């Protein structure tokens, strides 16, 4: 039997050869090996590894690091797109403040997403260096990599890399002779999607049930064990070393004028494409270019719709493929960039079946903390199952509209239910006829009577 480590099925695939990746254009992936093996400490150090740490700890102060990050406008690559520099500037710090924590959100459970796994399993020292710089900027004394429990290979690689960095003096007391102390531990979760929400992650890290916390206070004021805490995504932290070495203007220029956002993005494609995988491309690259790199759809299929960044984003149509995939542009079209890994839906695939599958996932992964999510998502699954079987009742499609609206932003305790509602709302908007075809009308009844909202 082939082991998990050996099987290519279990590896995230970067589909750009080393000849196409340069330090000044591909900051996330230029060091990666074409054979997919781990970039160890020796290899990493030979390619400017930990140069940013040496430079920053010897010649910068925390506020100057935060200023560069804000100027570069490094936006969170976990899906929200919030400015990392702004987030760091809101962390409580100062001489009288206790030193806090840096937490890397590596709980990559978004369906259709596998970008962080590539970085952790093939280039772990880039993440470690990014966490050291983030810790210095945020007065943190310790870091945690909160890792999806199923990522067994990632845990092995990261643990080994942490030991290498510790033995070389890049972690622990007095890093690079700077007087700055910092260390990191890997914490494997129990495999719950809700831990992607940063406060649920912190509860789980502390050993509690993974429920979201009320905000305020925000983690930057009171996070892990009541200390100031910054939670950033893997890809976000991996951007930090190059930004500190090459500067904010360089980072902003990487998009090539495609968008006002800066940097590159790990984009990907999955579903019925000929060449699923990952590419590091300028942020603002179009969906069409990503599909072209994936060599189109299998067996000459036609595209019906696509998710731009994981299962919790809204469906876009073929005519949206020419839009730049950045946070604001995609948002204006009623979706979200999310993780930037697109999933295609072909003309021969049922949106009703696809939504039933997605909503089953979201319903199962709900922590049950608030009513719209705990009760609304299973109800949504029940309605979708009926429509999928052609056994839907009059008013079911309208009721799906109402349930999706009840799970919208601001109506639930965290973003889990709004994330579940967005693909459903956009599927109903663009492909309502597919859902209506699943309604079984009594003889002589050709359509469903609308249900007044007050009677739902």
Description:
With 456 residues, the chain is an alpha/beta fold. The protein folds into three domains: 11-253, Rossmann fold; 264-346, Ubiquitin-like (UB roll), CATH 3.10.20; 351-455, NADH-ubiquinone oxidoreductase 51kDa subunit, iron-sulphur binding domain (de novo design (two linked rop proteins), Up-down Bundle), CATH 1.20.1440. 38% of the residues lie in helices and 11% in strands. The chain is built from 18 helices and eight strands. The protein has helices at 41-45, 51-59, 62-72, 84-89, 115-122, 124-137, 152-167, 198-205, 234-246, 248-253, 287-293, 327-332, 351-365, 371-374, 376-388, 396-406, 416-430, 432-436; strands at residues 100-106, 140-147, 183-188, 229-233, 264-270, 277-282, 303-307, 341-346. The strands form two sheets. Strands 3-2-1-4 form a four-stranded parallel beta sheet, with helices on both faces. It is globular, with a radius of gyration of 23 Å. The protein starts with 40 loop residues before the first helix and ends in a 20-residue tail after the last helix. The relative contact order is 0.11. Residues 1-9 and 448-456 have low confidence and may be disordered. It catalyses: a quinone + NADH + 5 H(+)(in) = a quinol + NAD(+) + 4 H(+)(out). Its EC number is 7.1.1.-. It comes from Marinobacter guineae.
